[in-house]
Specification:
- Helix content is about 75%, strand content about 0%.
- The chain starts with a helix and ends with a helix.
- By secondary structure, it is mostly helical.
Length: about 500
């Protein structure tokens, strides 16, 4: 318990830190200790839960009148006060605090801050807003000079406002800039760009192979650079722990990595030239295009997480993937073990039935069984057969043998494999998935709200210009801020 004593000292207790964020850090430390202190695991987890409940209890102290004031023009001020606390809660996985009604309401308000809140709930206004966002996304190249001028004027007005200490009426540019930097708007524009990216990949999937690059591939390359810069900017503006909280970011990293492989292979294939006929390198490249399209479509389904009904189901699928991976690892060990045993039976059979070297030429009954192509090919064939057997594709005739004893031993091993894999492991997988779903269903509200908060925190820090136009705007914005500083950030 020395580490606990180091975390909770008189100096820390007397430090002028926010008690809520201190509670977050202490709760995280206790959870980490529970992973390495097996003898005190239950005690440390319970202590961590109590510390987390302490921060939630502090939020309960806000009375109804104070909470009602946060629904109006002061929402940005109150939201700013809780920004650091909420970010710390997300960083330390304090799901109860993030799912607190007050914290979550502030998060939702900040999610759409910059839009006319009083009209957002109306379905007609929402439909018009979606249409406007689509048009605004398509017109980004035309509006780029106006956006740059608006950003410059905002920086200048913030500087003047900071010097004079006055509040001025918002101009059209200020209203548009508030709309442009709204996390909800950035989220919608990002999904529109992902949809266009998917359409380009689908186009590549239905076209014939070509050594010479097509216009679709050039467009995909431009979008790829834009998404790469967007993902890098998203990672740099958030802590690594927060970035990795969103499971979809792992899919993003996979797609970006596959795109890098595609670019390298296409450069090599174009350099070598030739014809698409019997071009194995080009064939593999198009295989990767197909896999990437698959991942992009799955990534686009994250838009469903905004729905309170479908969102928890997607979270359950992610949790189930962990259980599935565990069972697949166990499946791998079982398949390798039985494949080796079956291969050994066939190898011993070949040694038994193969005639001596001097008699091979006259022997017309040369071995033609399961392992006629060699032992390594036999191992691969046995492993493949066992894998397909798990899914019910069983063909006993393929496992033919020349000796009755070998057939009996292989049959016994095969039956044992089916018992262990199909009956035991598959049912264990079903039990694990059911247990995981029950856990997620029990905490569905907390898990969904925490997931929404993670996404909101990410998009609140994203660059407002959509892919691929961010290829130009991100370097310019970073150069300007590095040279002159972000006045708005300093004022806030």
């Amino acid at each position: 318990m020395d580490q606990i004593e180091d975390a909770v000292t008189a100096n820390n207790l007397c430090d002028c830190k926010n008690p809520i964020t201190t509670a977050f850090e202490l709760s995280t430390k206790l959870k980490e200790l529970s992973l390495i202190r097996d003898e005190s695991e239950s005690f440390l987890k319970e202590l961590a839960r109590q510390v987390e409940d302490f921060s939630v209890t502090l939020m309960h102290q806000i009375n109804t009148r104070e909470e009602s004031l946060m629904d109006h023009e002061n929402i940005d001020s109150y939201g700013s006060l809780l920004d650091d606390i909420t970010a710390s809660a997300i960083r330390n996985s304090q799901k109860k605090f993030v799912s607190h009604p007050l914290t979550f309401r502030l998060m939702k308000s900040r999610w759409k801050y910059g839009l006319p809140h009083r009209h957002v709930p109306r379905k007609g206004f929402r439909f018009l807003l979606y249409i406007f966002v689509i048009l605004d996304t398509a017109l980004t190249p035309v509006l780029s000079p106006f956006i740059a001028y608006t950003f410059y004027k905002d920086q200048k007005s913030q500087k003047d406002r900071n010097v004079e200490g006055q509040k001025k009426e918002k101009s059209l540019g200020d209203v548009y800039l508030d709309y442009l930097t709204t996390p909800f708007v950035i989220f919608m524009k990002d999904k529109i760009c992902q949809f266009v990216f998917i359409i380009l990949h689908i186009r590549m999937c239905v076209l014939d192979s070509s050594v010479e690059p097509r216009i679709e591939e050039y467009l995909i390359l431009i979008f790829y650079i834009g998404f790469l810069m967007s993902e890098l900017q998203q990672y740099l503006t958030s802590e690594s722990r927060v970035y990795l909280r969103n499971m979809w970011n792992y899919v993003d990293l996979m797609t970006l990595s596959l795109h890098a492989v595609i670019v390298i292979l296409r450069v090599i294939s174009v350099g070598l030239g030739g014809d698409p006929y019997h071009n194995r390198l080009l064939e593999i490249t198009y295989y990767i295009y197909g896999v990437n399209t698959l991942l992009l479509v799955l990534r686009f389904s994250s838009i469903l997480e905004a729905n309170k009904t479908v969102g928890p189901l997607q979270l359950a699928l992610f949790r189930m993937c962990v259980d599935l991976f565990i069972i697949l690892v166990q499946f791998g060990f079982v398949i390798v073990a039985f494949s080796m045993a079956i291969t050994m039976v066939y190898t011993a059979e070949l040694s038994y039935v193969t005639p001596p070297p001097g008699e091979r030429q006259s022997n017309t009954n040369r071995a033609k069984g399961f392992c006629q192509n060699g032992t390594y090919a036999c191992l691969y064939k046995a492993s493949t057969h066992l894998i397909w057997s798990v899914f019910g594709l069983t063909d006993l005739e393929k496992m033919e043998s020349q000796e009755q004893l070998s057939s009996t031993v292989v049959g016994v091993l095969y039956v044992l494999f089916l018992i262990i894999s199909v009956i035991m492991l598959v049912n264990m997988l079903v039990a694990l998935l059911t247990n995981t779903y029950d856990k997620v269903e029990t905490n569905a509200d907390v898990e969904w709200k925490f997931s929404r908060a993670v996404v909101a925190e990410e998009y609140r820090r994203c660059h407002p210009i959509v892919v691929p136009f961010n290829i130009l705007t991100v370097p310019i914005a970073r150069w300007y801020i590095r040279r002159y500083g972000d006045i708005r950030e300093r004022v806030s």
